[in-house]
Amino acid sequence: MATNNQPAVGRRQYPIGLLILGLFFLVPPANADKSLADAKLLSQAPSPPFEERLSAATAPETENQIQLPSGSRPVRIGLYENKPKIFTAADGRAAGIFAGIIEEVAKQENWQLIFVPSAWTAALAALERGQIDLMPDVAFSPERKQFLDFHQEEVLESWSQIYTHPKKPVKNWSDLHDLRLALFEDSIQQTTLERILRGLGCENSIIKVDSYEKAFTLTARGEADAVAANNFFGNYFYQDYDLERTALVFNAAPLFFAASRGRNADLLTAIDRHLRTMKNQAGSVYYRELGQWLEKPAQKIVPPYLLWIIGAVFGALLLALTLILLLRAQVQKRTRHLLRANEKLRA
Question: pTM of the predicted model, to two decimals?
Answer without folding.
Answer: 0.65
